[in-house]
Amino acid sequence: MLTGVNSVVAQNAMPDTVCVGVSRIYKVNGASPLSTYTWTVEGVIQSATTNQLNVSWNNTGVFLVTVQEHAPDGCDGDLRSGLVYVEPQAMANAGPDMVVCFGSPVQLNGSGGTNYTWSPANWLSDDHIANPIADIAAAGNYDYILNVTNANSCLSSASDTVTITVLPEAKLFAGNDTTVGVNHPLQLHATDVNNTGFTNYTWSPALGLNDWLQQSPVAILDKDVTYTVTASEVHGCSASDIVTVRVSRLAEIYVPTAFAPNGINKLLHALPIGIREFRYFAIYNRYGQLVFKTSNPAEGWDGKYKGIAQNSAGFVWMAEGVSYSGKVISRKGNVVLLR
Predict the structure, then answer these.
(1) Can you name the residues that pair with 329 across neighbouring β-strands?
(2) What is the C-alpha to C-alpha distance for residues 181 and 330, in angstroms, rounded to an integer?
(3) How many domains does one find in the chain?
């Protein structure tokens, strides 16, 4: 009997089926140790002269293997033969690299086999199917390696890798709620907090806006409005935020009662409403020392005095401006610095 043996698959009688790239030992059992043998593969005589032949199958196809024993007395045995079916290796294809938004599950697209193994298994719904869902919990680049076997249990000749790039979480800040004088221009601005790379902005409603499709439209209002701004980038990642604008018909200067330099609002500003001329905004510590002063409402205090960050404490502010009617508006109050 002509049989095939290798270190992994149990001995199989002819016909034999192997995967390309596999080495197999074929053997004639029960022969005389003094005999010699002639082996052929597809008619080509092999170098082996013992009762076994080691063949490395490097090409696919159907191959005829023959062997004939030559006894010491000069008699030749019967010619024995068998067919070997050499099957192709599986070809793993992990699919194209993908870029996904933070918090968005993505389906992998493996192919090339009948049995699949993905590694690592982290965040995969099933690491032994062709198309698992990857629900990755953190931004970054992640490589998933795919190995496959085909219907003939042939392993892939090489693994394949797909890289999933999870973008940072998209965050948008529409600005702090604010108050503006009736029919006075107000510059709005949407901030891309995580530098996501937003390319499209939409403000809603469009009421009072000079351009509702810009990152920084100007609003002119005669009534209170809450705007929702939504932004998106080239991969479809999006974020939204809201800001409320209240309209005042009286001239006024507003200053928050507290601020935190280490938070979102890093500067303390005076907010003049209906003010034609802004004269000053000054801040004093509990010892009466002037720690900050400006005549530009766009400038704010960063919580430092002579370059030194001040501890949490209460401060006194004073501000003055002139309304559009010519009335002098003077205001004074307290603000708490939070650390």
Answers:
(1) 321
(2) 17
(3) 4
